[in-house]
Model the fold of this input.
Amino acid sequence: MNERTIKVLEINLSEEKIKIHNRKDLGQWLGGIGIASRLFAEMADPSLDPLAPEQPVVLANGPLSTIFPVVTKVAAVFRSPLTGEWGESYAGMRLALAMRLAGYQAIVIHGKAKHPTYLSISSRGVKFKNASALWGLKVGEIGSILRRLEPNSGFRSTLRIGPAGEKAVRFANVNVDTYRHFGRLGLGAVFGAKNLKAVIIHGDKNEAVPNSKIFNKVYMDIYQRVVNTDIMEKYHGVGTAININALNNLGGLPTRNLKSGHFEKAENISGEAFAEQRLIRKMACSGCPVGCIHIALHRREFGPGYEYESKALSYDHELIFALGSFLGMSSQEKVLDLIDMVEELGMDAITAGVALGWVIEAYHSGIIDKAVLGTGVDFDDSQGCLEVLKNIVYPPNSFYATLARGAAAAAEKYGGKDYALTLGKTEMAGYHTGHANVLGLAVGARHSHLDNAGYSVDQKNREQNNLEKMVDSLIEEEKWRNVLNCLCTCLFARGIYDQDTVVSALNAVGINASAGELNALGDKIFKLKHEMRTKLGYSLDHLTFPKRFFETPSLTGPLNENTLQKMLDIYKSRI
Amino acid sequence: MTTAKILQARDMTKCIGCYSCMLACARTVRKSLSPAKAAVRIRTAGGLQGKFTAEICRGCIDPPCAASCRLEALVPRKGGGVRFIKDKCLGCGDCVEACSIGALKFDDETNQPLVCIQCGTCARFCPHQVLTMEERPV
Done:
C-alpha cells in the first residue's frame, strides 16, 4: 500500500490545546479501525482507569468514507468503562461526511476539561465552548440547542451525551445526529468523565475528485449493485427488524432473559408489525442510497383531557430484542416507551435491556427486594422497567450504583451469575443461534455479534459438529471485517464490498493494495487488538459462560458446555 | 414541438436524506467530493426529526438571477432556467441575492455561483425517484 499522509487532530481538553500530526507511518494502517487501533495503542495507559483523564478517545474514518455508496461509518476506540478492556464502536449518519470534509482522518481527544465543554471542530481548528448550561440536559433537548448555536446545517455532525454519560453509567452511549449511536461499551461515560458534553464536526472543506473517469466508473458499478440488486433489499424493506419473526420462527429469539428462544407475542412487535402500524419514514446515512433507518411514530397520552405528545423514534432488530422480547414486552407501545427512555437518558439499548432482564429475574428470585429496587418489576411490565432505568442514571442507593456498572458487575456482587446474560462482561446481542454465536461474542474484540457473525456461522453449520471449521470461520470473518472497518463501510454492505470491489475502489482513489495485502492487514489488526486487550486485562482463560445459555435450546438445538469449551480450546490454539 | 427538461422535487416526503443527489452533482459537474459544492441542496427543517426539503433551481421562465446579472454571465435558457457563462462572471453575488426562493448558492472558494445546469445527474442518482426531470414545452 502506498505511502499516504494521515492527518491526525489531537485535542487536549485539560490544556485547551490542539496539535496537527501529519503521519506518513500510519498509511500502512489504511484507515478506520486500523489507524484508530494503532493510535490507541500508542496513547492508552493500561495502568489507569478507563475514566482517567489521560485515556484517549480515538475517532477515525477511511479513505472511501462517504465518497462511495454505503461507506458511512466512523470507528471509535477507547478503553471501555464497562469491561475495563477494549472499547470499539461505530456510528454513521452524517459523521463520516463531516469528518472527511473537516479534513481529518483521525481525531484523538484526551484530558479533562475544567468545566462542562463542547467542541466545535472544523478545518480551521477547534473551538472550546462552555457547556455549563447544557450539563444535565437530555439528549433530545441538547440536540435542539446545538442545532441553533452552530452553523453548517446539513454538512455537520453532532455527537452528544445524555445524563447517563455525565453520571458515568458504564454503558452510556454517544448519540450521533439523533438516530445513530456509538452505542456499546460505554463511550458516553468516557465523554462524561472528560466533561465533554458534545462534539460538533463541520465538514466545511472541499476535496477534488482524484481521477474522474476511473472514479465515476467504479462508483457507478457499486451504486448499481446497491440500488438495483436485492443484496441490500432486506435492510430497506422491513429493515433489520425482519429478524424478529425470522429468528422467532426458528426458536432463536432471546426471550424473557433467555428463558426461551421463542416469544409467543413476537407477532405484535415484529418488524412487519412495526412497519404496518408505526413506520412513518425511512432515512439514510449520508452517502447511502439504501436508507435502513426506520422511524416509528410514538404517540403517547401524558395527561387527562386528551393530552398527547408524539415522538419519531428509530427502531432496529437489536432494540426490539433487548427492550422487547428479552423483557417479554407484548406491545409496540411498551417497546417504544423503553426506547424513548434509553434514547433520552443516553444509554446503550442492548446493555440496558439485557441488564433489565437480570434485574427482573433477580427480583423474582428474591436476591433484591422491592425496598432496594424502589419498584416492583416483571416481564411485560414497562412501568417497572422505566423506573429501574431512571434509577440507574440517578441512583438512590448502592444497588443502582452497582447496576450502572452493568449486569456482570451486579451479578458478581448480588448473585444470579447463571442468568446474567453477559459474555466477556458485555451483555449479549439478539441471537440465540448456537455455539458459534456464544463463542463469537465471548472472544470477539468488542464482544459484539458484528465482530465475527457467529449467528451466521451457526446457521451455515446447523449440525454444529465441525467445530474446527466453525472456529476458523469466526476468526477469518473477524479478520476480514477488520479490513472493512478500516474503510468504515457499513457492515450491511459487506455483500457489496467483496475483495475485488474493495481493491478497485481503493485503486480509484489512488491506493494500490492487493487482496493479499488487505488480508495481511486484517490479520495484523486482529493481533494488535488481541495484544492490547490482553494488556487491558482480557484473558481467554478467564471466560465464563452463564448456565442459561445451556439451559435454553437455541436455533440449532441445545448447547453443550463441553462443546463450547472444546471450541474455545481450538480458538486458543489458533491465537 | 421541442421540449426542455427541468428538475423537479415533487415528493420530498419520500426522501431518505441519503445525499446521493448532492454527491453526484458535486462529483460530476464540479469534480468535487464535497456535497456542499452541489447546485442541489437537501436540507432538514427542524433537525433530523423534521422534514426534508429540496433547494433546487426551479427553472424560471423569466429568471430573476439572469435579470440581475450586469455582465450577462447568466442568460435565460430556452424552456426555463439559465446558462452560465463562467468566464464573464466576476463574482458579485447579485444573482444569489436575486434568486427569489434562495435556491442559488454562492461558492466562496471559486467566487462564483453554483448554477444548476439542468443536466439531470442528481435525478439519475436518486434511489427513490424523488428528484425527476420533467419535460416542458419550449
